[in-house]
Design a protein that fits this description.
Helix content: 40-55%
Shape: elongated
Order of helices and strands: EEEEHHHHHHHHHHHHEEEEEEEE
Distance between the termini: 48 Å
Largest sheet: 8 strands, mixed
Strand order of the largest sheet: 5-6-7-8-9-10-12-11
Number of strands: 12
Length: about 525
């Protein structure tokens, strides 16, 4: 009754998996009908029994995936309950339990305990926390991307509006230029004659002298800044136990001149207050006469003074001089005449002045006509307005290019939102600061010199623009030069996080700093279709 059962196909026994081979290659490790096996590179055919016999037979080493017999090959750990991993075959059967092989399959049975269940559980817990942070950070990052898109549209609108306005203003400038050319009345010879005025020549000499003094003043300020940095470094770095009186005198002198407390007394209550609780005597503030400029005025107002239009000033002076003084009988007499006689008086006055000019008693007026002055002023205003709009358009185009270019603000412009954002970290006696895409600083908490750690120069130079690794590092270079050392520099290393913050500060080598921190800008969206890790 059961002969028909003999016709059913017999179940095929599943071939045993080859140790050290990943699931994707297991199908390639099966003997032929004749009991042989071909090396994976196809260069040689060997008996199946030579596979994993601890003797390297294939040129590519593919016959020994589960032993350390062949160099430059890899052993696959299944790690059931966790994630499979590859390790170099040279670490197989070496008596050491590799952390990548939590199932202990890289060693003989009984040598290493299988802890994949515990490791997998801890890994999944940690990974869940990381994914939670990544998801939260990705939401924040999406607001950065939205900001960049909004900024793009705004800049595109500015460019379009500016282009239209430039066309209108260019026509206006051309119109006013034609008017100014036609109304110009003052000849070059007349202007040169006015420039021979002793007052004008004296003004030019004073201007040149001020420019020279300004140049020398800036040189001295730069030298003073360099010397102060050198003396600050000496003050904080010298060893008072050596009893070097020359160094001690230099430090004491600098502290007195700069108004600093002695370095050994910093932090002591006695250094700030006397026993009666009153502040110690300080150097009296310099009293500057009212007719002299302060340092702030020299810094802010002197450049404006040197930009004075002396030709316009000269013409205004001539106009002022030509105005009759109050009380002049000749020009004020009309105030006392009857209205009926005023026309005759004006004619007589004009005739008299013309006669005086003819015989050389007075010089004729050679000033710029009112029409020409107004025309030139209108032209200058129109040109300034045109340049302003052109500059706005140029700036908008440059900003739009930076947002659209992945090299500057990321593939989606996500870093634009953080441009100029400053992050700080307190450590010891200093506060470390980095303003993204700007400058980084080391600021003392108790007075002293702030050192520049460098300005932003590039992203990660070892990665390709557009890749996640490219935006994980920022380089800040060309900072303040160290005493007998290199220029200060900073490497900012960042990872995905829900906040823009600095976590650690370290000086890896002399004057070469590294900050580590987090930013939502690095939190990429968690893809729906990501391939699940093997467990």
């Amino acid at each position: 009754m059961i002969p028909w059962l003999l016709l059913l196909p017999l179940p095929v026994a599943r071939a045993a998996e080859v140790v050290g081979v990943p699931p994707s290659l297991q199908a390639s490790y099966a003997p032929s009908a004749s009991g042989s096996w071909k090396c994976l590179d196809g260069s040689k055919e060997i008996p199946w029994k030579f596979v994993n016999d601890d003797s390297c037979d294939c040129p590519d080493g593919s016959d020994e995936p589960g032993t350390g017999a062949c160099p430059n090959t890899y052993f696959y750990c299944r790690n059931e309950g966790h994630i499979g991993a590859n390790i170099p075959s040279s670490r197989v059967r070496d008596g050491l339990c590799e952390p990548e092989c939590c199932d202990g399959s890289d060693e003989r049975p009984g040598v290493c305990e299988n802890i994949c269940v515990e490791v997998g559980k801890e890994y999944r817990k940690k990974r869940a926390e990381e994914l939670k942070i990544q998801k939260t950070g990705a939401k924040i990052r999406s607001t950065y991307v939205a900001f960049a898109e909004k900024e793009k549209k705004r800049l595109e609108g500015v460019i379009q509006t500016s282009s239209q306005e430039i066309t209108v203003r260019e026509k206006e400038v051309a119109r006013l230029q034609d008017i100014a050319d036609r109304t110009e009345s003052l000849s070059a010879a007349e202007l040169e004659y006015k420039k021979e005025s002793p007052l004008y020549q004296s003004l030019i000499e004073h201007r040149d002298a001020l420019k020279s003094l300004q140049r020398e003043h800036k040189k001295h300020l730069e030298r003073e800044k360099t010397l102060s940095e050198i003396l600050d470094a000496l003050r904080t770095g010298y060893n008072p136990n050596y009893q070097d009186m020359a160094v001690l005198d230099a430090v004491r002198g600098w502290e007195y001149l700069a108004g600093l407390p002695h370095i050994n007394d910093v932090g002591k209550d006695a250094s700030a207050e006397t026993e009666d609780g009153e502040e110690t005597d300080s150097e009296p503030e310099e009293v500057i006469p009212e007719d002299e400029w302060t340092a702030v005025q020299l810094e802010n107002d002197l450049p404006k003074l040197l930009k004075t239009d002396y030709v316009s000033l000269l013409l205004e002076h001539d106009e002022h001089v030509m105005t009759p003084a109050e009380g002049s009988m000749l020009f004020e007499l009309s105030n006392y005449l009857p209205d009926a006689l005023i026309p005759q008086y004006e004619d007589f006055k004009d005739t008299l002045l013309g006669w005086m000019e003819t015989i050389g008693v007075i010089r004729p007026s050679v000033g710029v006509s009112t029409e020409a002055t107004h025309a030139q002023q209108a032209l200058n205003d129109a040109k300034n307005s045109l340049r302003k709009v052109e500059k706005e358009k140029q700036t908008a185009e440059e900003d739009l290019q930076k947002i659209s270019d992945s090299v500057t603000f990321g593939p989606q412009g996500e870093w634009k939102k953080l441009d100029g954002t400053c992050l700080e970290k307190d450590l010891g006696d200093y506060t470390y600061e980095v303003c993204l895409f700007g400058a980084s600083k080391q600021k003392p908490k108790k007075g002293g010199t702030t050192f520049n750690l460098g300005k932003f120069s590039s992203w990660n130079p070892d990665a390709e623009p557009g890749t996640p690794e490219y935006y994980e590092k920022q380089m800040y270079t060309k900072g303040t030069k160290c005493w007998n050392g290199p220029e200060r520099s900073l490497l900012l290393v960042m990872t995905c996080g829900t906040e823009n913050v600095i976590h650690t500060v370290a000086e890896l080598e002399k004057c070469q700093y590294q900050f580590t921190g987090t930013s939502p800008a690095l939190c990429l969206p968690v893809s729906e279709g990501v391939k699940h890790e093997e467990l």
